[in-house]
Amino acid sequence: MTKTGAAGALVSVEIDRSSDVPIHIQIAGSIRTAIQSRRLQPGIRLASTRALARDWNVSRNTVLHVFENLMSEGLVQSRVGSGTYVASVPTERRPSTKKHQNGDRGETETKYPFKGLSRRGRSLVAQSQLGLSEKPVAFMPDVPDIRAFPMRSWLRLMNEVSGRLKGDILISITNTGYDPLREAIANHLNLTRGLSCTKDDIIITTGTQQSVDLVTRLLLERGDPVWVEEPGYMGTRATLLANGCAPYPIPADTDGMNVEDGIANAPVPRMVVISPSRHYPLGGRLSAERRQALLELSKQSGTWILEDDYDSDFDYGSGSPSALQADDTEGRVILIGTFSKTLLPSFRLGYIVSPPDLAHDFAHARSVMDRHAPIFEQLVLSEFMHRGLYATHLRTMRSLYCERQAALVDRLDKELGYIPNPSELASGMHIVLPLSDDVDDRETVRRLQADGTVARPLSIYYANKKRRSGIILGFAGYTPEEINLSRLDVLR
Amino acid sequence: MTKTGAAGALVSVEIDRSSDVPIHIQIAGSIRTAIQSRRLQPGIRLASTRALARDWNVSRNTVLHVFENLMSEGLVQSRVGSGTYVASVPTERRPSTKKHQNGDRGETETKYPFKGLSRRGRSLVAQSQLGLSEKPVAFMPDVPDIRAFPMRSWLRLMNEVSGRLKGDILISITNTGYDPLREAIANHLNLTRGLSCTKDDIIITTGTQQSVDLVTRLLLERGDPVWVEEPGYMGTRATLLANGCAPYPIPADTDGMNVEDGIANAPVPRMVVISPSRHYPLGGRLSAERRQALLELSKQSGTWILEDDYDSDFDYGSGSPSALQADDTEGRVILIGTFSKTLLPSFRLGYIVSPPDLAHDFAHARSVMDRHAPIFEQLVLSEFMHRGLYATHLRTMRSLYCERQAALVDRLDKELGYIPNPSELASGMHIVLPLSDDVDDRETVRRLQADGTVARPLSIYYANKKRRSGIILGFAGYTPEEINLSRLDVLR
Q: Can you tell me the ipTM of this complex?
């Protein structure tokens, strides 16, 4: 079974090269069994990775994988300059097969070789986004006016299209979503964002969070450097970290992400996550020079660009610039969008616009993750878009939010003497009220909250210690009467 | 910056221990920058992992992680018996910052250090579940009779509850789902499955596929041994493999998974995935002895048990056994269920019943993955359950499917001379028609399909080469008139 010599033990393993179990997992399994059954005794030194690779006819990398797995389970130990040794495995690792006796439940000491969450489980949990206040009360940002949602037309449509709820679509739709909805979204984006995509490029998701998770799992390795905006959207950073990637915060200013700074100071990224049309949360638009530099970086290095197009529908007059994806000649820009801000967050509907080469891979990945988004909302939204009701709704909301923004700007000026930068007012659903950087904005927000006012501190959007202080004032969801600046007295 | 000696180079790195970026990622970042900026020259040998661990004040494991990351990026190379060296990095890795010139698009050679999908992305895609025929035509298994779904009551309820679609729930619900629905599910399971769970233990998901993905990411490491049933559900195996786990196929017979066989021949698993109430796809029920042995294994080793309770609602007379989770005194059994078979697959609704200790972790993980399931279906289903309509629907479907099963059994006997094992008939929505093992059942299915009959070959449910041959005959979704056994003539 094993040949041992001065060069360390070779271990014979069974490899089924036609199996869908990865080879390093098969080999680790054989060795695990050999160790647990004591065919490989504790203290035995294993042969070098080179020798084992030759013996098993696999790559050195595969052997390293095997060792890493066995090490993480405590089955082998590595000693520097000396090699890899079989660890002593407690016999308690083998499960007892004796029957469970009623009555001795309290007495048996349980020994768990496997405890609690996995490492990646702990990363997931550590990045949790719970705990942010989510009440639709002024000035909670990132939510539409839920009372302005055309619920009656939506329900009417729901009844109307329910007749189509029969046959194949009740069993399953394609993993990328309901085809007529994909088509409606492609049409909308081609018209409003300068794209020339087809329905085949659209993947319906359950929102931005899932879109980012899907893109991360499909395209990024653990440890991959990813540029993110500083400050920037926490949800994206959380997903990257939860998946073991390395987000590098690149400073953003009124011209968006400082791409030059990233090129000078950060490693070449495997992906850049960016909100070029309107930086989140500061509101700047990526300058033409930086757009160009970013596309050039992508062209030179094959860097993926994840364009978070979360807010392009609410521009107030100046017109949205076309999407970055529209200028991408290399098929490296992936655009993600959401209906959480234009319709309702709880519908959980978003989309990915994939470069043509990748669309199929997204569909495959989705089939393993969760199959597809629920059918009914997709059916109704599809009809809502095809009949032009979505475009009408956007126009209505745009002028409503534009008025509300103007009212807030006016009162910020009159009551607090603050005038926002015009670059921030071209679009968006909130205004950032800067505080002096020695003010703890989290504390300020806590005091406001005790008073019934919901707001978000600016500092929580920063990954680095160096943070600007401020308050995010969401205005879209609230009438001027509901907005009470006097509560912001505390800021003066 | 670096001290080099006979013992190899030490590298000074910046570590921010309060940052949420994992330390090994921070260190890898510092070294990456040092290599790319040529502060660390190609060919330099790095100090031993032990020396670096001491120098950085981190564990050896962390250093190994750093090396693994840098190796996978090609920035360092390891030479056996000699150490780890800085690789020669092509200068093209640094992105050019020169402006993109219009007109030279076709001429510039692009060099991509980052290519295509990530390794984990390739695993995801490789496990794709696409390609199975999904037409609701006899004998496609795993689907309910979609025509028997009470669409009119459902729509009426939809209109009725739509008035509740206002306020906070339009913004966000808890990551674990709509509370009244969680309560309805807990009540239903306590009544029908012998559980004593509360709504706090219930996590609403978008179906089994997402449930398994969530559990896997939360609880399992890459390389972790997991027992799965052989044959067994492909979707689960796919998710495990896509997440880098090591599924060990444990043979199943008419008494369910052969737990003794697993204990004797497979490594101690970190998780066992099992369908104890009705084995999928063979239909056996886990014997009392094996239930006990499995719970004992879990108690001794801390092994998680993922109980796939996919089919417990359709038992025909003998009564479902209580869920395995009901007998779990250690909080190690996680139960998952789905509404895809009792309502409609395209609604994408399922649930996890978590041991109390884990419920919070599931909520946290969910907040990073996709927030929560869409609200509207949850609201309607909640009402559907609270009014007793769900229980009524189950009763109706149970007697319908029972009749259809009897009709199929009768005709299998009369027309093909085949009598199924009684253990297979106690519940379920399909019958397995065994073929001689030298028949290629995939080929048989292809021939049937050309003739308009949809069926699944039994062999595709096996992970190992040793497979039984057979045809899965789903009967639940089709009237006796739609079921045409004469097409199965080919089998004789």
A: 0.78
